[in-house]
Every structure is written in C-alpha cells, then in structure tokens.
C-alpha cells in the first residue's frame, strides 16, 4: 500500500534564489501528521510551497489545514454556514477583491494570520500571477546600523484599505520566527501606517524606504498558477501581492491557520513619539487614539 508520502518520489524544485518551491509526489488529500511534518520542514526552508494538480474538495482542504493548527473562521466570507473556516474569493475582469498591494495577511490584527493555504479553482487564461517576498532576507541584507535601529521600533498597522480604520494593532518592525528563530522585517505597504517611535514625517520616510526595499525583485518569486494548484505560505516571514493584469474569472478557495502574537526581535527601546499641539498634530491623531484605547500611559 502506498502512503500519501512517497518519499522516494518527492520532487522539490526551487523556483528562485530567495524563496518558493514546487512540490510533487505528495497527495495532500490523504495527508496525515507524518506528511504534515514533511510539509512543515519544507515550508521552513522555502517559505512558500506550491503543490500542482491537487484539486482538493472543501472538506479535504479543511482537513489538510487543520494539520497545521486551528483555522480562522470568516462568518461573512465563508461559502456555507457549515464550513465557516473555508472561504472563496471570485474576481472577474479585475473587479472584486484582488490583493494587488504588498501585504502580510491581516497584519492589522493583534494576532495576524500565520499560514494561508490557497486552492486555485479557476485561473484566468493569462495574467493574475502572485509574487511573494522573503522578509528574512530583506532584514538580513540591511546594514548593521539599520538592522539595529529597526529592531528597537514598533509600527501601527490598520485595516483602512478595507474600510475598517478602527481595526488597528501595533507590532514589532523586526519579529522573530517562533519555529526557525530567524529575524524578519514585518512592515508592509498595505497595512502598515506609522512607526510608533518616530515623528510622522520620519515614519513616512522610513516606511517608504522599508516597504520598497523589502519587495525588491531579488527577494521575490513570481508564480503563474494552474487550476488545481495548492499554495501554502508563512505570513510571519513573507509578504505577497497579486498582479492585477488579468481579464476573466479568477476563483480561489482558502483556509487560514490562526495567528499568534508576533514576537519582537529586541525589547522596545523608545517611547511613542507624538508632538503635542503643533500644526502637524493631525498626523498623530490615529496613533494617539489607539495608544489611549489600548491603555498606553501618555503624557499628551
Ligand atoms: Fe493575501
């Protein structure tokens, strides 16, 4: 009897110098704890994995996801009431929810999503590729003074792009991965709004640099989808974006492994920086109100 894991047949093809591997020889529909260990090891090494020609049913997809932890429920997005942790996104002709800005999934939450497992149900004939970037490398290739500076900072993330500006969280700018122990850069164009310990204008300059730097082509992989491919990525050390260059239907199904508290690479070194009563105070409003709501002791 063959098991889901046919070790001898396991084919791992690296897709770029920075991250990403295509895996064949593993049947995810029949995966159990033994296969999950193999996948975890591969994910730690490659950060995003692609399993072509899997074609999982919703229940198989959910069962595979549960091997990696508790799944997030999305009552509004889920396909049916019986499977709140399973949801489907449809984009047709460029309309709908297309994640075409660089982001790490739901970094606007106190506990951002850990692992996403996506099933490409229907891909457009051309376009709609996804890019991922390696945030370990983005951190490691900064100069030593910049690495040290960033390690002492935190950043405010919000869900403004999703019309929920009240959804906010503060995370370390450099986080440490609980499994690999490696440090990674944790700011992104889509959700990160403000470096807490810097003034508004300093924050804008640093975030603009870091978000551009982190997504430099040499840290990335670009994947062209086929129907039936399962992709799985670790949001703690990557970010991603979809290329909104396609026409026609693009249907994805996904489950998400619930988040944990991002661990800082170093203790916070400075207090939040907010200037009291100046012409530029309006830029500090959001940060000030979030700090107040979360019980941060303030002197302004
Ligand atoms: Fe995403």
Strand content: 25-35%
Helix tally equals 6
Instruction: Pick out the low-confidence regions.
Output: none
Would you state the CATH class of the largest domain?
Alpha Beta
CATH-defined superfamily of the largest domain: Clavaminate synthase-like
What is the fold-level CATH name, i.e. the topology of the largest domain? Double-stranded beta-helix
Radius of gyration, taken over Cα atoms and rounded to an integer in Å: 20 Å
Class computed from helices, strands and strand pairing: alpha+beta
Shape summary: globular
**How far do the termini sit from each other?**
69 Å
Counted beta strands:
16
Ligands in the structure?
fe (ii) ion
The whole-number mean of residue pLDDT values reads: 91
Count of the domains: 2
Strand order of the largest sheet: 1-2-3-13-5-15-4
**What is the architecture of the largest domain at the second tier of CATH?**
4-Layer Sandwich
Give the helices and strands as they follow along the chain: EEHEHEEEHHEEEEEHEEEEEH
């Amino acid at each position: 009897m063959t098991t889901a894991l046919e070790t001898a047949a396991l084919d791992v093809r690296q897709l770029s110098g920075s991250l990403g591997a295509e895996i064949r020889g593993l049947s995810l529909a029949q995966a159990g704890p033994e296969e999950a260990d193999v996948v975890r090891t591969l994910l730690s090494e490659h950060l995003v994995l692609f399993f072509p020609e899997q074609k999982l049913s919703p229940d198989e997809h959910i069962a595979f996801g549960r091997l990696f932890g508790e799944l997030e429920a999305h009552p509004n997005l889920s396909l049916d009431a019986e499977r709140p942790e399973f949801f489907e996104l449809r984009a047709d002709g460029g309309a709908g929810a297309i994640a075409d800005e660089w982001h790490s999934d739901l970094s606007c939450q106190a506990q951002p999503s850990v692992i996403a497992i996506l099933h490409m149900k229907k891909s457009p004939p051309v376009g709609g590729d996804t890019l991922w970037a390696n945030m370990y490398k983005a951190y490691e290739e900064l100069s030593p003074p910049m690495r040290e500076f960033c390690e002492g900072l935190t950043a405010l993330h919000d869900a403004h792009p999703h019309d929920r500006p009240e959804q906010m969280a503060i995370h370390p700018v450099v986080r440490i991965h609980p499994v690999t122990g490696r440090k990674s850069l944790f700011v992104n164009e889509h959700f990160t709004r403000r470096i807490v310990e810097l003034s508004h204008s300093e924050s804008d300059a640093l975030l603009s640099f870091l978000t551009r730097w982190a997504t430099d082509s040499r840290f990335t992989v670009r994947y062209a989808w086929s129907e039936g491919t399962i992709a799985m990525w670790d949001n703690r050390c990557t970010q991603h974006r979809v290329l909104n260059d396609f026409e026609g239907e693009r249907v994805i199904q996904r489950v998400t492994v619930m988040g944990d508290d991002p661990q800082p690479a170093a203790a916070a070194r400075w207090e939040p920086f907010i200037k009291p009563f100046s012409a530029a105070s309006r830029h500090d409003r959001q940060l000030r109100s979030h700090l107040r709501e979360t019980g941060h002791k303030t002197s302004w």
